[in-house]
Amino acid sequence: MTGLTPSTRRRLKQLRQVPNVWEGDRRPLVPEFASTFDTDSDPQGECILWVDGVEEVVRAMDVVPPEAGHEAIVRTLLRAMENPHGSNARPARPQKILVRDREIQFFLRGVLQGLDIAVDYVSELPLIEDIFQGLQDVANNRPPQLPPEQAEALLTAAYDIWQDAPWELLDEEKILAVELSYGDLGTLYVSILGMLGMEFGILMYRSLDSLKQFRQRVLSADDASSDLERAFLEQDCFFITFDQLDALLNSNGSSAGTEAMQPTFGNLHPLEGMRPVLYEEEAIAVLLALKALHEFFDQHLDALDEEVFPAIQGQYPFPDPRHPDKQVSITVTTLPEVAAELYEMAIDDNLDDDDDELEIDLLPVLRYDLIPDNALCKLDALPREGLESLRHSAKYHQPFDTEIPTKAEQYPIVLIQTSRPKALLLIEELQKTGGLEAICFNPGEDPFAEERYDLCLLKTQNGDLHLSGEFSEDDPAHAAARRQWDQLCKKTKGQCGLVVAMGATGSSRGNPGLKNMLALFEGRSLSAKELGLGLLELVNPLDEF
Predict the structure, then answer these.
(1) What is the pTM of this model?
(2) Hey, how many other C-beta atoms are within 10 angstroms of the C-beta on 402?
(3) So where are the chain's domains?
(4) Which of 445, 440, 471 is nearest to 457 (CA)?
(5) How far apart are CA 403 and CA 394, in angstroms?
(6) Where are the beta strands (DSSP E) in 56-117?
């Protein structure tokens, strides 16, 4: 058994000793009231409590894994003595400690030798029993996440949406209107989350204005998390998120079985904040909306994707959950005009957000010396078969940790083509940085020539940014290539690659064959918003003098 160090004993001996009796215990943290302690606590953990039986206050509390040894009890006890919980509690050393476990009693007696603290065994600890009973009562009185009458139907409807996997074809800008006209609700405006493979879910806004305002606030928010949190809490919507419980995922990002997913329901409102509970009227509305969406996806999802989003409408009758002998008719409609408006909103923000201009003293993060002079930089795509062939034939291949979705027929790449010696040197320099991390496009401006550019940047594993290409925003060929790049990145869930090829001066310039491609670096795409540089402006060097 490890004992306290001499210095720790001397420090504890200097604490005033009070004639109080403390109770200490550890109890299983049952799921029903795990969140009473800490929203991130493990429901399978254990709670350690030290309370002052005379003053009837909790002096320290910890949540630990079940396998944690008795040392965890000592750590919490030391904090109860030296740094007690609560503003009124003062550091002190108790005269006596009561525990209800013989093994803990003997352990503490050995550890606390020389501190003049008696450690006694009792069969019951009344104060701790009252505390845990109170916590249990609070947990039992909490409303369930879903009304019992609708819970099973809602879970079934959520599983149906999970199997539909609309996020494989629709991004969050593709808005659907679900006209309920049920109770106090008229139309819900639905946004799909999950195309990038990070978080799957459905947002049902109670008004179109709320949806647009949220998108605008996110786009205009500073990088500070407080701005994003405020924008999040000001939404007015119902939400369903799908939490993946394990690694049972297939290559296209959908679940290999509904057992791998747990739906979570809730409500967001500017005055209520986030509430992970649906009451009966809300639950019925969400249930009807999910069932109508499932029917709509079953009929029309194959006709929709992020490129093609025509005006389609479907009408679906369902029994009224409150009056089964009556029918409720739900209408689902695509809103291509709204989708176009949201897309333009995002594009305008990326190009016109002058408030985020980068000052000259921050520019050293951007390097210009990686790409050889006169090298060709081009946006392109590889068919799936070509990607597999290049992975095997390239002299150097940096793989990504996730396979691209099976439905992605093409793989977006940035092609850097130069002479063979320069290509080999470029590959070597990239290897020294740790390899490619991400590719992104960021707006740039030359105020002297009054021209704006789309800058292709490579982010390497060491954190550096490297300029690989400058494209005029007025170039229609690049504009078309950039649109294709963005669309392909959505289909690959953000995966992309850098191809280094030789033959920049021969007949293969701009269109190298497999034998000309020397390296493939696989990575991910970053939006200009994620990169956070803002508008990059060319500065006249004479301004320094």
Answers:
(1) 0.49
(2) 16
(3) 6-141, 148-347, 356-544
(4) 440
(5) 18
(6) 57-64, 93-99
DSSP 544: G
Per DSSP, the residues of 445-463 read EETTTTEEEEEEEEEETTS
Question: Are 285 and 182 spatial neighbours (Cβ–Cβ below 8 Å)?
Answer: yes
In sequence order, the 6+-apart residues with CB closer than 8 A to the CB of 342 are 173, 175, 212, 215
Does domain 6-141 match CATH 1.20.120?
no
Structure tokens at 308: 């093609």
Amino acid at 363: L
Q: Residue 520: beta bridge partners? A: 397, 499
The string of pLDDT tens digits covering residues 485-504 is 999 999 999 999 999 999 87
So what's the pLDDT on residue 353? 47
How many Å apart are CA 231 and CA 266, to the nearest integer? 17
| Ramachandran angles phi, psi of 497, nearest 5° | -150, 165
Q: Which two tokens stand for residue 278?
A: 């649906």
Q: Give the separation between CA 138 and CA 133, rounded to whole angstroms.
A: 9
Q: Which residue is associated with the tokens 């969140």?
A: 35
What Å distances lie between residue 135 and 7, 39, 89, CA to CA? Answer: 38, 14, 22
Measured distance CA(337)–CA(340) in Å, rounded:
5
CA 290 to chain centre: 23
Closest by alpha carbon to 403, among 485, 490, 493? 493
Q: 102-133 pLDDT, tens per residue?
A: 999 999 999 999 899 999 999 999 888 888 87
Angle, nearest 10°, between helix axes 208-220 and 225-233? 180
Residue 159 CB-density burial (10 A; 0-12 exposed, 13-18 middle, 19+ buried): middle
pLDDT at res. 356: 45
In this structure, what token pair is assigned to residue 412? 């977006």
